[in-house]
Design a protein that fits this description.
five-stranded antiparallel sheet; mainly beta; globular; three-stranded antiparallel sheet
Length: 207
């Protein structure tokens, strides 16, 4: 018969955090993960010495590089949700692209909304523009986030575009680009050299 050898292998992961506003990078922070094991990196109330350098109120992205295949899950404490927490999977850089598509975005006013988180995982700056295709009473067929002004993301940089921000017919005052009551899809464009990854969050009145 055949014999299969199962090897217990330790993975080394390097985490780099980057502040979305200032561009400040923290790390790389080293974590070692046992075979079939897991580690938790808690930014809120962290006791790990190397996490003490992460400022209170930090908002940004984290890049995880490892010498073996790993899975990454991010849990976000969400004060505005009845459920208290949101969870998303890490996006492999192999899935990065110059143009991404979000199949469902909406602004339901007090009933809820979506918001798009975008990160530039490339080595060059990317000017990110979000185009909407919308449906609903009184909704334009197309619209541009931030009045069509791109967001410049440096390498490792990130931003959040909230479809629930106040809408205005004046493009200089409508950072969201989505009127209350509108639903549709979004195209996230980073230019010819862009390497973008993205996650869409959704919230309704119940959480």
């Amino acid at each position: 018969g055949a014999t299969t050898a199962l090897l217990a292998t330790l993975a080394t992961a390097l985490l780099t955090l980057q502040d979305a506003t200032t561009g400040l990078q923290i790390g790389p922070l080293t974590r070692r993960i046992a075979a079939n094991g897991a580690v938790t990196v808690a930014l809120n109330g962290a006791n790990d010495r190397d996490l003490m350098q992460v400022p209170a109120g930090f908002t940004g992205s984290v890049t995880v590089r490892a010498d073996l295949p790993i899975a990454v899950q991010v849990f976000t404490e969400w004060n505005g949700s009845a459920f208290g927490m949101a969870s998303t999977e890490g996006v492999p850089v192999d899935l990065a692209a110059a143009t991404l598509h979000a199949p469902l975005v909406y602004n339901a006013g007090p009933e809820g909304r979506t918001w798009i988180a975008v990160a530039n995982v490339g080595e060059q700056p990317a000017d990110v523009l979000v185009r909407y295709r919308l449906d609903g009473t009184g909704c334009p067929a197309t619209a541009l986030a931030r009045g069509g002004t791109p967001v410049r993301l440096e390498p490792g940089g990130s931003t959040v575009i909230d479809q629930g921000e106040p809408w205005s017919p004046d493009p200089n005052l409508g950072p969201s680009g989505v009127r209350p009551g509108c639903v549709g899809s979004a195209e996230i464009v980073g230019g010819a050299g862009g390497r973008l990854v993205s996650t869409v969050f959704a919230q309704n009145r119940s959480g």
